[in-house]
Predict the structure.
Amino acid sequence: MVKIAPSILSADFAILGEEVRRVERSGADWVHVDVMDGQFVPNITIGPGVLRSIRPHTKLPLDVHLMIVRPESFVEAFAEAGADLITIHLEASTDVAETLLRIKGLGKGVGISINPATPFEKVRPYMDQVDLLLIMTVNPGFGGQPFIHDCLKKIEQAREHVDRHHLCADIEVDGGINSRTGKLAVQAGASVLAAGNALFGAPDMSKEIASWKRF
Ligand code: DX5
Ligand code: ZN
């Protein structure tokens, strides 16, 4: 069954603890945490201190998406603050293989992400080292952008690769996911849906998550 990872980028940051508890009560599988540095992306969000503050509010895995340059400098800090999965961007790291190893060495789930313009070919050499491939379906930086349909082909390529090589990596999609695009992504092979606006903006997050799990 597909896993649902609400992105707290769309939460009310003034009551983040309560928002994270609401995510868990609503039947989500992971909490998706978007970390932005104003360099890799044109926006700034949260750092390890905020992650540490939300950690006691949920038992769900914290799925930390690092949209920052030189993520190698920060993986220890996010691991120590309570991350369960740490995802770096292929485009942002000067030594991808070494950084993935370092995340593994910290005992955390290892994730790698690619922007819409980056082809699957670039990430293929790392696929047997990761627990998660995060395929961006918008250009990262902001919630509420429209899903880029061209990315569906990349999801299919990733699913074909994972199945053909009997890998157990999850394929997560992130950006513009709603009840329509989420279904398309799952049909293309996604196993995890990260979504901000469509879940936090829904009248009832539980109902929305329950219906997405039937995709
Ligand atoms: C985009 C972030 C996403 C974002 C998704 O840069 O990585 O996780 O929160 O938001 P929606 O679902 O609103 O596009
Ligand atoms: Zn994200």
Q: What stands out?
A: The radius of gyration is 16 Å. Residues 7, 32, 34, 65, 174, 194 surround zinc ion (ligand 2) (CB under 6 Å). The mean pLDDT is 98. The beta strands are 3-6, 31-36, 62-67, 85-89, 109-114, 132-136, 170-174, 192-195.
